[in-house]
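User: Just a sanity check before I run the rest of the batch. Below are the structure tokens for the first item. I only need the designed sequence back.
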């Protein structure tokens, strides 16, 4: 299976939880590059993040977490849909962002 290096940008609170000192990580993703495969690789490399970005029981994105790439909101895309080519090529990052709510 082909392995692709994907850049992932994490918000501060997830960086802290994972013990990272920088906002961007590079992950080796096997097979098709999708939200699911990127998040699987992220959780495998940083086990402390398991359950924070997506629910452990359902694998669904947490309500206040959003996904962006190439200036597009990918939060409601199917988890197995291919990510944009620039993400697969490593020229654009896959961004995990904490959403803000309130008034």
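Assistant: Here's the designed sequence for the first item:
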């Amino acid at each position: 299976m082909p392995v692709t290096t994907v850049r992932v940008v994490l918000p501060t609170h997830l960086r802290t939880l994972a013990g990272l000192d920088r906002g961007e990580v590079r992950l080796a993703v096997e097979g098709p590059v999708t939200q699911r495969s990127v998040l699987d690789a992220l959780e495998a490399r940083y086990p402390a993040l398991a359950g924070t970005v997506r629910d452990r029981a359902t694998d669904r994105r947490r309500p206040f977490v959003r996904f962006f790439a190439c200036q597009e909101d990918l939060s409601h895309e199917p988890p197995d849909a291919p990510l944009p080519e620039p993400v697969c090529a490593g020229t654009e990052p896959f961004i995990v962002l904490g959403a803000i709510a309130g008034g």
